[in-house]
Amino acid sequence: MCSCSYHDGMILQAEGERSKIVKHPDDTYELCIDKISDDDAGEYTVKAENSYGTADVSAKVTVVDEKELFKGIETKRLLNPGMFYI
Question: Where would I find the H helices in 14-84?
């Protein structure tokens, strides 16, 4: 079986400088990106091939500033110091 992951047409390495592709016991995969930045936005594509054929799926990823995302939403303090909920 062949499986490849791409970001904006460029192949992703299984273990990059800030990213890694993790295979889970149920044969699903997860792309983990550390310290995400605007450069990580774009189209991500996974292509897989085996004896039954080929398949691919794409998703558009947008990076937003967390502060802007939650702007105007009131936060309330919980009993544990440092813990907040929205």
Answer: 66-69
Residue 34 and residue 71 in contact, taking contact as beta carbons nearer than 8 Å? no
Domains identified in the chain, total number = 1
Tens digits of pLDDT across the chain (86 residues): 557 777 788 887 777 788 888 888 988 888 888 888 888 899 988 888 888 999 988 889 888 876 666 666 666 555 555 554 44
E strand intervals along 51-85: 53-61, 76-77, 84-85
Which residue range is the domain that position 21 belongs to?
Answer: 2-85
